[in-house]
């Protein structure tokens, strides 16, 4: 199924959202809960499957649902369609600070592999499925696991990432990447995992036990701040400051806050 031809515009810098423009009858599919605003005249409906030809029929939809369940994503995708007259806009925002990366699947040979939570939205006709890495080692030690999302089609897709984004063009090269910092890569790139140095480096280097290896010719997208890393820091900070008062000002610690800190220290 040929993907719908949609226009778009990105807004913002570190907390971006994308505004998609739909002609009458055009549709865009998105992860549940990512819509920011939309014009009157746009109809939306949660459906099993992405609406591509590959998911037609009951069995196709059930297979699609089963695959999405393995990634931990919602089994539903929301379909937004311009059911009115003239051009209409609908916008989508990422659930955490970062960037939105627009990619025309035609420029990557029709297939793109990405982290399981990277997909934001895409033109209808894009197939959203999963891919397994070829080696079990990648599955057991690859951080994000051996289940990756695979986006197939010939239209625009939008993926989300945290922090600063870099696009690397590999020319028969190999790079080693923290597994959480990998966002997406072209299907021609070979993906595997590699031990992070010797045993001392693995356990005390702070870079994790294994690194992702990407080798070949094609584009790779990397993020500087994986959401998992951000969440770990927030949780760690909340444990340290758990006894502090919510009334604490920015200029210093109040009496209740000092008591909370002392209490935290005494608690170990």
Question: How does this model look, in words?
Answer:
- Strand 1 (7-11) and strand 2 (17-22) form a beta hairpin.
- This protein has 268 residues and is of the alpha+beta class.
- Residues 245-259 and 261-266 have low confidence and may be disordered.
- The longest helix has 15 residues, at 57-71.
- The relative contact order is 0.15.
- The protein has helices spanning 57-71, 136-141, 199-204, 227-240, 255-266, and strands at residues 7-11, 17-22, 27-31, 35-38, 42-48, 76-82, 88-93, 98-104, 111-114, 119-123, 127-132, 147-152, 156-162, 165-177, 182-186, 190-195, 210-223.
- Strands 9, 11, 12, 14, 15, 16 and 17 form a seven-stranded antiparallel β-sheet that branches.
- The radius of gyration is 22 Å and the shape is globular.
């Amino acid at each position: 199924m040929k993907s719908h031809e949609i226009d778009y515009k990105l807004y913002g810098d570190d907390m971006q959202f994308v505004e998609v423009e739909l002609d009458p009858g055009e549709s865009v599919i998105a992860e549940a809960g990512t819509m920011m605003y939309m014009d009157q005249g746009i109809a939306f409906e949660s459906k099993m499957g992405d609406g591509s030809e590959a998911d037609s029929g009951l069995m196709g939809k059930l297979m699609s649902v089963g695959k999405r369940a393995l990634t931990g994503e919602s089994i539903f995708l929301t379909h937004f369609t311009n059911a009115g007259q003239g051009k209409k806009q609908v916008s989508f925002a990422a659930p955490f600070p970062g960037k939105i990366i627009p990619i025309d699947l035609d420029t990557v040979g029709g297939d793109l592999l990405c982290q399981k939570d990277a997909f934001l939205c895409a033109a209808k006709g894009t197939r959203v499925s999963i891919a397994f890495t070829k080696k079990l080692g990648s599955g057991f030690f690859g951080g994000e696991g051996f289940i990756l999302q695979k986006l197939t089609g010939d239209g625009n897709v939008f993926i989300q990432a945290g922090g600063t984004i870099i696009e690397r063009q590999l020319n028969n090269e190999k790079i080693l990447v923290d597994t959480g910092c990998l966002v997406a890569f072209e299907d021609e790139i070979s993906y595997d995992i590699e031990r992070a140095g010797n045993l001392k480096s693995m356990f005390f280097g702070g870079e994790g036990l294994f690194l992702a290896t990407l080798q070949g010719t094609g584009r790779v997208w990397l993020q500087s701040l994986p959401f998992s890393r951000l969440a770990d820091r927030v949780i760690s900070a909340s444990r340290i400051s758990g006894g502090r008062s919510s009334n604490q000002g920015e200029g210093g610690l109040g009496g209740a806050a000092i008591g909370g800190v002392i209490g935290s220290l005494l608690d170990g």
